[in-house]
Amino acid sequence: MIFIDACKRKDTPYTPIWLMRQAGRYLSEYREVRAKAGNFLDLCKNPALSCEVTLQPIDILDCDAAILFSDILVIPLEMGLGLNFLKNEGPKFETCIRNNNDLGILQTNAYKKLDYVYDTISLTRAKLSKDKALIGFCGAPWTLATYMIEGQGSKTYTHSKKMLYTNPNLLRNILEKLTNELKLYLESQIKAGVDAIMIFDSWAGALEEKAYIEFGFNYINEIADYIKKTYSNIPIIVFPKGVGGFLDRFANLNSNFDVFGIDWGTSMKNAKHILGDKFVLQGNLEPCRIYDMEAMESGIDDIINIMGNTSGHIFNLGHGMLPDLPVSNAIRLVQLVREKTKR
Ligand code: CP3
Q: Considering only CA atoms, which residue is closest to atom 9 of ligand 1?
């Protein structure tokens, strides 16, 4: 698999490409299947239909890797916080964790209630072409904690950061509970058949450097160490969005993962300079460039000029596909990267 080889910095015939949120609303085929399922969460809980939408971007865009169709929020959902996805409002939890008493709400063994995810993985791995990788994933403890504390998405993360500075032990407690679940959740995904793992820390950038290392990154490292102890062969990708201001910290910390995801707000040139010897880099086209073919092509060229067409790079967006991006441009994106990086 070209994608897996690239994660391990082996030579590949071209730079592999896949797109964060490649399965989603910008595809009419996705919207049709979601309507059949009822709503987004029902779709996640239906392995046959989740398998179908996982494979759509492989058939339509010809990406080098498929990413499991699910959501990072199924973990807090199965820890006992009721979850709804409201139209145009995003995710909302019925209960949130704000004080020491609320901790009791959190159930353990959430990973045992996620058979619908493992069934999607085994179905998908059986149907996916042998040369394409299947990526499993989870949210990082810090990002999941923000949803559990805020009860929904946030622009300021006030409740989460207030907890960090006024009651850090409570936050540590939540992060430890999440970390324990996520280790076993990812292990179960590997047993079901995923070829690589990605940990999304979408709200890493909400924290200053010191707080992020202590309350964010250290827990990701603990998860990566746990996985690598048994599954040293499975590549791990970490995407801490918004940490471009302190990349040098990650160059000097001990860490046990293979690929560092670079967001669109971070300079790829700096990332290569600071982290390129230590990690394979994944990224980082600004998704909005896909609105316009010329903007897209010049963005591709800039990234390829920096990363070169040698090993050490996986092409991706710097964050997820947006619901109204034109499919035809996304198809062309995959073709262009393949043509321009052919060795
Ligand atoms: O194609 C893929 O990337 C695979 C599936 C996937 C989804 N979510 C499907 C989804 C993955 C890997 C995720 C990760 C995820 N979910 C993250 C981390 C990555 C990132 O984007 O930063 C986060 C923060 C979430 C939480 C989440 N899920 C939010 C905030 C929302 C609502 C916002 C939105 O885009 O609607 C979701 C819903 C969601 N997850 C959708 C999809 C396809 C849209 C649901 C729909 O069909 O209406």
A: 71
